[in-house]
Amino acid sequence: MIVLTASQLEALVDRPATERAVAQIFTDIARGAANQPPPTSMGTNAGTGRYVLMAALSDTTGTAAVKLLADVPDNSARGLPTQRSMIVVLDRENGAPVALLHGGVPTRVRTAAASAVATRALAREDSRVLGLVGAGGLAREHVEALRGVRDWNRLVIWSRTPVRAAALADSLEWDGAIEVVEECASVFAQADAICTLTPSVTPIVRGDWLRPGQHLNVVGARPRPDEREVDSATMARASVWVDDMATAETKSGDLMLAVGEGALTLDDVVGTVGQVLAGLRPGRTSAEQITLFDSVGIGAQDLAIADLLVHEARARGVGVELDLNG
């Protein structure tokens, strides 16, 4: 098996190929060519950390994969990453170990790729202004992933930490105008497509800010059913698609808190993005419709990008090969 570190993986990333791979695995799940079971979230009273097992099996890649995600909010006070993970890949035919990957780079890149897939499938073709709520590493990755999805001519950024928004704006290579705004509502007043990318526990986005025809990628909240970025009115006003229904029911606070408050029901969810790509469920049906992708993150995305990265690593001679039977 091959072992790949974070720095090695960073140099292997191919964003257009990742978007295609994520679109393919979404479609495969919808058509039954991939198996995406619900995640297992583990915790005890000894701490606030959650340990999430995210697994998938794919006919297209010929692999099975499991990511173990450690979600430890208390690490922030320790000066440590609040999320850490690793991905194990096996050969689906004979069960042989294929790879062990640091999970940080794959998770960041495939998350933004999923937003790109959803935006391509659901946003209006004439969308021109891209909005970011949040200015961290995931925001930067979304700029890279979405820059070719529509003919954007402007980027609008808001962050609870204005200096980070300004730093992001100054560092980006972007062909259009970039504006840093002082209020989160200003992003929604200007943007055609918005990505929410903060680890917020309580809503920072209000439904009365939404305008007809907008598309939202709701991405940032932690994988916990009691934490969310957007309020119930946002979920109620939008037509909602998810990456995986069982996963959303387990991990999406944006969805499940709104359901608990009676703003919508699970039956109101239109379907998965994969079902749209496979032609099994409708996508956007009018220019006025507000579309929302509730992105929780699934093991199949990790499997898809891991397959790409492993093949590229072996082609370039990158990584350490280990024989665990030795």
Summarize the structure.
The chain has helices at 6-12, 15-31, 75-78, 104-122, 137-146, 162-171, 184-190, 232-237, 245-251, 253-260, 273-277, 299-316; strands at residues 2-4, 34-35, 40-42, 50-58, 63-71, 83-91, 97-102, 129-133, 154-158, 177-180, 193-196, 215-218, 239-242, 271-272, 291-294, 320-321.
How would you characterize this protein structure?
With about 325 residues, the protein is of the alpha/beta class. The protein folds into two domains: about 1-105 and about 300-320, ornithine cyclodeaminase, domain 1, CATH 3.30.1780; about 125-295, Rossmann fold, CATH 3.40.50. It contains twelve helices and 16 strands. It has helices spanning about 5-10, 15-30, 75-80, 105-120, 135-145, 160-170, 185-190, 230-235, 245-250, 255-260, 275, 300-315; strands at about 1-5, 35, 40, 50-60, 65-70, 85-90, 95-100, 130-135, 155-160, 175-180, 195, 215-220, 240, 270, 290-295, 320. Strand 9 (about 155-160), helix 6 (about 160-170) and strand 10 form a beta-alpha-beta unit. Helix 2 crosses helix 4, helix 2 (about 15-30) packs across helix 12 and helix 4 packs across helix 12. The longest helix has 19 residues, at about 105-120. The chain is globular.
CATH topology-level name of the largest domain: Rossmann fold
> How many domains is the backbone divided into?
2
Whole-angstrom Rg: 19 Å
Strand content: 15-25%
Tertiary shape: globular
Alpha-carbon distance between the two ends: 12 Å
What is the succession of H and E elements?
EHHEEEEHEEHEHEHEHEEHEHHEHEHE
Going by CATH, the homologous superfamily of the largest domain would be NAD(P)-binding Rossmann-like Domain
- Let me know the number of strands: 16
Return the CATH class of the largest domain. Answer: Alpha Beta
Oligomer: single chain
Specify the CATH architecture of the largest domain. Answer: 3-Layer(aba) Sandwich
Task: Indicate the low-confidence ranges by residue numbers.
Answer: none
- Helix-strand makeup class: alpha/beta
Largest sheet: 8 strands, mixed
Q: Average pLDDT value?
A: 97
What share of the residues lie within helices? 25-40%
SS field, number of helical segments: 12
GO molecular function, one term: oxidoreductase activity
InterPro entries: NAD(P)-bd_dom_sf, ODC_Mu_crystall, ODC_N
Family: Belongs to the ornithine cyclodeaminase/mu-crystallin family.
Protein name: Ornithine cyclodeaminase family protein
